[in-house]
Amino acid sequence: MNEVDVAVVGAGAAGIFAAIWASRTKRAISVVALDSARRIGAKILISGGGRCNITHEHVDEKAFAGSTPAAIRKILRRFSAEQTVAFFESLGVQCKVESTGKVFPVSDRAQKVLDALLLAMKRSGAEIVSDHRVKTIQHFENSFLIQGDWGELKARKVILSTGGKSVPKTGSDGHGYVIARSLGHTCTDRIFAALVPLLLPTNHVLCSLAGISCHVTLEVRSGSGSLIKSIDGSLLCTHFGISGPAVLDVSRYFINARFEDTHARLMVNWLPQKTDATIELELQNLSRSTVLSWLRKQLPDRLAVALCAEAGVEETTPGYRLTRENRSALRETLTRMQLPVTGDRGFRYAEVTAGGVPLNELNLNTMESRRTPGLFLCGEICDVDGRIGGFNFQWAWSSGYVAGTSAAHL
To answer: Rounded to an integer, what distance in angstroms lies between the CA atom of residue 315 and that of residue 182?
Structure first.
């Protein structure tokens, strides 16, 4: 293996997909994918709790952040969620849509998804090589020289799909950004963990409620109070702070806001289905019923008790004894409780990376670099990150498809 037509650097979801479609597009060319990990597809195997949430029933640019919506939309339209499902089903992976809109294999086994991808790669004629970390890539007039401790490889085209920095034990440790910069690209000023659990002070009341989960609305607000982002979904209390779908989704917006405004706040509404007026009326009409008996109908017991304490109201207080100040304190705690976030769990626990190579440095018709002819980029190395629910996998499939089919045209 001294020379190939197309070399894919990074064999995660996007890289594997790019290799498959490069080889399918033009069977006569040689395609090889290099990956630093000894075990290919580790991130695929751990995704979705080991079930692999391959896409979402409804995918559009609104589910993503980073580069402009118009740019993201252009790539997503080239290989849709429907095409993703059809692709996997053609390989024998039957899919199902859950009530949340998430698409999983019927088997609920990520291994089946990975096996199908590797089989498709083998059938296409593309080769995959593990334990081959790429250290440098040099660009010459009509070729690239790829080097590592294992030796070197010459390629006519290169697809860079090294991922970001999330879950570094799988091989995505950020070295791809170094390679991209060496080939003329820039990266966003901010590269940070997204879809990541958030930390609270160890003595915070929610840390004592580990295991409790409920539907909430989370809001990111600036120091001046203006709304930056609102997310509805499930929040999970943990021993270190908060997690769950709503927290993961809101994390990138909160972390990003803190870069610009150290006073940005994260607030939780524990009763998103009710207005302030409704809560005030219900509290006024409690009569002899206690605050706790009212809250128990809407929230888990331990959380209800904790929120009463947070508001400074004894949970056994009957409604007729509640003062105006008591009701106001309860409303504030139940609908606008500020969470004193101290940080996040970092790239080790993040599902995706926010930031990367801006899409405006690529030709969106091909995913080819505008800086280095013959270089293509796809997947998480790009400045695109999506919500939880299969959106980031869909970006991998869509961008990998565009890069792969385009690179095949030598």
So the answer is: 62
Residue type (1 letter), 341: V
For tokens 């499939």, what's the residue?
397
pTM: 0.96
Return the DSSP state at 261: -
**Rounded CA separation 295/221 (Å):** 26
Q: What is the rounded distance in angstroms from the CA atom of residue 269 to the CA atom of residue 339?
A: 11
Domain boundaries, the chain: 3-185+351-407, 198-344
53, 47 contact by CB (below 8 A): yes
Cα 314 versus chain centre, distance: 41
C-alpha–C-alpha distance, residues 372 and 110, integer Å: 36
pLDDT digits over 118-175, tens only? 999 999 999 999 999 999 999 999 999 999 999 999 999 999 999 999 999 888 899 9
- Are the CB atoms for 405 and 26 separated by under 8 Å? no
**Cα distance between residue 303 and residue 295, in whole Å:** 9
Cα–Cα distance measured from residue 254 to residue 67, given in angstroms and rounded to the nearest whole number:
17
Total count of residues recorded for the chain: 410
pLDDT over 80 at 205, yes or no: yes
* Topology of domain 3-185+351-407, CATH: FAD/NAD(P)-binding domain (3.50.50)
The DSSP secondary structure of 265-309, one letter per residue, reads EEEEES-TTS-HHHHHHHHHT-TTSBHHHHHHTTS-HHHHHHHHH
Tokens of 151: 């030796």
pLDDT band for position 410 (cuts 50, 70, 90): confident
Q: Which helix (H) or strand (E) holds 129?
A: strand 127-129
Distance CA 63, CA 72 (A): 10
Give the integer Cα–Cα distance in Å for 126 and 118: 10
Query: Could you tell me how far CA 226 lies from the centroid of its own chain?
Result: 25
Those residues with Cβ within 8 angstroms of residue 364's Cβ, 6 or more apart along the chain or in another chain: 71, 74, 75
Task: Count other Cβ atoms within 10 Å, centred on residue 39.
Answer: 11
How far is the C-alpha of 85 from the C-alpha of 103, rounded, in Å?
8
pLDDT averaged over every residue in the chain: 97
Tens-place pLDDT, residues 42-94: 999 999 999 999 999 999 999 999 999 999 999 999 999 999 999 999 999 99
Closest CA to 390 of 42, 36, 81: 81
Cβ proximity of 395 and 386 under 8 Å: yes
